[in-house]
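Sanity check

After download, print the first record. It should look like this:
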Amino acid sequence: VKEIPFEFSSVEDHLGSFIFPLVDDTRAELCSSLERIKDLPSAGIVMKKSKRQSCGYDVRIRFWETEYIVDYDKSDAVHVGDLVIISTLRPNQVSDLGRYGAAYFLALVTDVPEDMEFRRMLSIKASKCMKLTGGEEKFTSLKILMNLTTIKRIHTALKMQYANVNLKIIRNVLRVKSW
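Expected structure tokens:
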């Protein structure tokens, strides 16, 4: 991780100093999720290629496998921004991924219907395009690793276009004189 200085020459330098810690925190949270993969929310799914986006898939949740919270409403378990791992084998540990020729990939949930009747359907954007046999594929497991929405919002705020944003408060706090 890059060393964060005590003084900054600009607001851009100040905001940029938060990027590496944000990436490191995200990595740590993802590693933590993978370490406890056996206990993560898990569902049996069927998916098919989406016509709306490249490497996009429509996923139907067939059933929930994990009783991870007593009396938890599983219809509300998946949210837009969730990072999920989809595999043909239900992993109990990270080393199970890829074992016995199992296929797996990471995906980001891009759409979940508002209508509770259709909450078992969701759209994902996969980390790699999969070739589905017969147009539909039964993957054994969808595991919810973490939600990236807040991280994405923070990253966007840190990378904002400085010319179009009123940064008067930040300038005063940092006592930046020239811009």
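If your output differs, re-run the checksum step. Summary of this record's structure: The two ends are 28 Å apart (CA to CA).
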